[in-house]
Amino acid sequence: MKFASILKRARTLAAEADISQVDFLAVQINIEGEENGVFYVEVKDGRISVEPYEYYDRQCAVTISDADFSKLTRGKLDTAKAYDEGKLRVEGDLGRAVQFAELLQSGIKTQQ
């Protein structure tokens, strides 16, 4: 999956995510593999943004391969299992990473 496709998929899921219970969230996503890149997801003031930049004041950073991110965003890979197996690494606030995973799942559910 090309990085532009990864970013597009993240934006599609973000548009569908239920952010009603989130006051503020700032997560950087580091994509590794053939199509590596960085983007961030921010929930602020009732809006969600996905942008292809590093987020230096982030609450956490999630690192995952391009292939595993594709599986994750299609509901083919469980977030907790990916973390337990070392396919998904978290730097920073693990609670915020869990909150991000929940947002991701809410976006996936509306797509199915």
Description:
The protein has 112 residues and is of the alpha+beta class. The protein has one domain (3-107): Nonspecific Lipid-transfer Protein, Chain A. The protein is built from 4 helices and 5 strands. It has helices at 3-16, 66-73, 79-84, 94-111; strands spanning 24-32, 37-44, 47-51, 60-65, 88-92. A 5-stranded mixed beta sheet has the order 3-2-1-4-5. Helix 1 runs parallel beside helix 2 and helix 1 (3-16) crosses helix 4. The chain is globular and about 35 Å long. The two termini are 20 Å apart. 28% of the residues are buried. The model has no long low-confidence stretch (mean pLDDT 93).
Count the E strands.
5
Report the structural category. alpha+beta
The total number of structural domains is 1
Average residue pLDDT: 93
Strand order of the largest sheet: 3-2-1-4-5
Quick one: CATH superfamily? SCP2 sterol-binding domain
Fold blueprint:
Layout: H1 3-16, E1 24-32, E2 37-44, E3 47-51, E4 60-65, H2 66-73, H3 79-84, E5 88-92, H4 94-111
Parallel strand pairs: 1-4
Antiparallel strand pairs: 1-2, 2-3, 4-5
Helix pairs in contact: 1-2, 1-4
Quick summary:
The chain has 112 residues and is of the alpha+beta class.
Characteristics of this structure?
112 residues; globular; five-stranded mixed β-sheet; 4 helices; alpha+beta
